[in-house]
Automatic annotation (TrEMBL):
Residues 3-180 form the AAA+ ATPase domain. It is found in: Cytoplasm. Keywords: ATP-binding, Coenzyme A biosynthesis, Cytoplasm, Kinase, Nucleotide-binding, Transferase. One of its GO terms (cellular component) is cytoplasm. One of its GO terms (molecular function) is dephospho-CoA kinase activity. It catalyses: 3'-dephospho-CoA + ATP = ADP + CoA + H(+). The keyword Nucleotide-binding applies. This is Dephospho-CoA kinase. PANTHER family: BIFUNCTIONAL COENZYME A SYNTHASE-RELATED, DEPHOSPHO-COA KINASE-RELATED. The gene is coaE. One of its GO terms (biological process) is coenzyme A biosynthetic process. ATP binds at residues 14-19. Pathway: Cofactor biosynthesis; coenzyme A biosynthesis; CoA from (R)-pantothenate: step 5/5. Its EC number is 2.7.1.24.
Amino acid sequence: MKGPFRLGLTGSIGMGKSTTARLFAEEGIPVWDADATVHALYAKGGAAVAPLSAIFPDAIRDGAVDRDRLKTLLQADKQALFRLESVVHPLVQAARQAFLLAHETADLILLDIPLLYETGADRDCDAVLVVTAAPDVQRARVLARGQMTETQLEMILARQLPDAEKRRRADHVIETLTLEQTRAEVRKLIATLRSRHA
């Protein structure tokens, strides 16, 4: 097989995606994290800071992108998101390519991308894993973090493909009920993919 098998991981907010990605990493699978990449791009010295300072000067503080200020600007201006994505998406794509080159000898890699379907990144994956949970579990998990209001949660969910549609399009689905059950499912999936694509 040419290069590693690319498993895309996605799931709506509060579905256990970050935990699932960590479980793959614990099994020795290289994981590329789209959110962590964006954080690095927004940090002081990050590649997104200069271009975004030209578009959103009010969102820059101490040489870095202030995510809370940026969020406020995005809520106030419907077109702002498109301008943001036109800068950030190409930078994220370049970072993903660099990761793929660095891990070209791996047999399996995980691409952790929250907006996998929304950005068309599923086309770059050999298979997609969607993590899911019941809506009440999802809401409770997100609000328990204390970093988001109900309104902000609704805004994020409105931007994301509905969970049912993600599950319908997925090659693999894991319901994240407990940590141990999720770990067992992750191990099973790794074994399945390795035996199928060895």
